[in-house]
Each structure stands twice: as C-alpha cells, then as structure tokens.
Amino acid sequence: MITRAALALILSSASPALAEDVRLAFPVDCTLGQDCHIQQYMDQDPSAAARDYRCSGLTYDGHKGTDFALPDRAAMAAGVTVRAAAAGMVKGLRDGMTDGAPLSEVQGRECGNGVVIDLGRGWETQYCHLKRGSLRVTEGQEVAVGDALGLVGQSGKAAFPHLHLSLRHHGNPVDPFAPEGKGCEEEPAKSLWEDTPLYRPGGLIALGFAGRIPSYDEIKAGDAHHDTLPEDAPALVIYGYSYGTQKNDVLRLSLAGPSGTVIERDVVLEKPQAQSFRAIGKRAAAGTWPAGRYRGTMTLLRDGRVIDEKTGALTVQ
C-alpha cells in the first residue's frame, strides 16, 4: 500500500525540478549592451498574440528560444564564438548552409547550421544559425560548459547575424528566464541562468557618423560609420540603429562640434520595429566644416523615460 507521503514523493519526482535540473552559462563571447544584444525572447503567449516573459513585445508569435544578436555582418565576419551553455553530449549537428541565403533555400532547415546537445534527464539545448564551416564539435562528443561549438552566423531563417538558443525538457520548450511561466509584473523568482542576463525592452545597436545618409544595407553590413571625415565633406550625418522599438518611442539625435550644435532632432517612431535606423544631417553652409572633434549623442526614450543611450566622437580634418 502506498501512503500519501510516498505518493507525494513519487509525483514530485516525476515533475521536472526546473531550478535543480539545469543551469545555463552565457553562450556567446560578447558583452550585452556593448557588442551584442538580446533581440528576441521566447514567446510566452499561447494565442496568436506574442509577449516575452516581462509582458513586453520583444518576441514574435511562436518564438521558442532566445536570440543573441551581433551589431552587424562585419562583427560576424570577424568571428564571435558560440559556447556550450551546459554540459552534455552532441546529439546532432548540421554545417555547410550559406549565411544570408534566401528563405526559399532554407525551407525545412530554418535552424541553419546548428548543434543539439543532450544534457540528460530529458533536457537538451539547440544552437541555431551558426556560421558556415565554423562548427568545432562532432556527433557523440562530450562537451563541457564553455566549450567552443562554432561561430555566430546568419544561416537558415535569419534576417541578421545571431545565435538562437533553445532549451527543451522532454521535447517541450522552456524559457530559461521564466521556467514556470508565471506573471510578468516583476523579475521571475526562478531563472535557469547561472547569471541572468539583464532584461532590456529594446535599445540601441549602434551610433554612427557619415558624410551622407547611408543605406540600411550599409548599416547592417557595418560599412556606414566613419571615424573621420574631411573638412569638405558634403554633409555631416549622425544615425542611430535600434532594436525592439515601439510606436511613439522617441529617438533623440544630436551632433555638436567646435562651433557648437550642428544639428539635433527628436524623431518619433511611428510603428513597432524589430530593427530600424534613423538619420539626420546638415549640409556645409560655407562649403567646409570647422576642423576638430565632434560629439554625437543618441537617446531612446519611451513614455519620457530613457531606455538606452550611446555617445560617439567624429574627427573632421
């Protein structure tokens, strides 16, 4: 005969002890807010709507992982290492898919180049969108926390260079930021991270300067920014590259030089956007610009509150 106490013990053992079963280390060789950011969190809404674990919109319907994004393709080309967030055995992998390939070429292989690691006890992690030819592990290999798996890429269904990290328990997606999936008015009591990454409800990817309004592709490639411009540059332009913005957010841009303010403006964003850029500029009235150091500031505001801010310097010579 099974006593009530024994039955309770059996039931508690059968349910996943989330906080005790697994802990994740940060999976990318980058620093959040400096040279990478979390573009999207796991979708916590079971309906056709979408919300992240803080009840904000930094996700999309059906998203089953966390996206760690690089600022541009130049950072991807330089090489940023993806590391094992938890120890286990390589259960499966794929390599050889082209980074940035059209969606028509990735149907059924949306993860792109990736690795699945069996952590034991029904847990597994999946790492997607790795750079072609960068995988450093083999099937059946045992990996420790922090072991290099490959490089951040843009393979599969990926509009920008990033690592998509998924955590599953018996095949079911688990959000490591909120494994119990309860509430969002404050930080969840439980997290499966060794050191939980700071939540940002959107932010700034890059601040840059140019002699003309750059194209969006130049910004995404990392080719738009100039540290120096000549005195006879046709214009001085400051641009801001942002992510996770919402309708009515304000992007405040300003540029000042040796003779004072060159240009400043508040740009009101008209709709939510996963990523976007805005630029303002001014033509040289006298044909040349005063030589010297120029300072740019970019601030993202939401409901009058500062969400993020970046500063940068330009030399005119």
Task: Provide a compact summary of the structure.
This protein is mainly beta and 317 residues long.
Fold blueprint:
Elements: H1 4-14, H2 18-21, E1 37-40, E2 66-69, H3 73-78, E3 81-83, E4 88-94, E5 113-120, E6 123-130, E7 142-143, E8 148-151, E9 162-169, E10 172-173, E11 203-210, H4 216-221, E12 228-229, E13 235-245, E14 250-257, E15 260-268, E16 273-283, E17 292-302, E18 305-316
Parallel strand pairs: 12-18
Antiparallel strand pairs: 1-2, 2-9, 3-8, 4-5, 4-7, 5-6, 6-9, 9-10, 11-13, 13-16, 14-15, 14-17, 17-18
Structure description:
This protein has helices at residues 4-14, 18-21, 73-78, 216-221; strands spanning 37-40, 66-69, 81-83, 88-94, 113-120, 123-130, 142-143, 148-151, 162-169, 172-173, 203-210, 228-229, 235-245, 250-257, 260-268, 273-283, 292-302, 305-316. With 317 residues, the chain is mainly beta. It folds into 2 domains: 18-173, Distorted Sandwich (Glucose Permease (Domain IIA)), CATH 2.70.70.10; 203-316, Immunoglobulin-like. The strands form 4 sheets. Strands 1, 2, 4, 5, 6, 7, 9 and 10 form an 8-stranded antiparallel β-sheet that branches. A 5-stranded mixed β-sheet has the order 12-18-17-14-15, with no helix packed on it. β14 (250-257) and β15 form a beta hairpin. The longest helix has 11 residues, at 4-14. It is globular and about 70 Å long. The model is unreliable at 1-19 (pLDDT under 50).
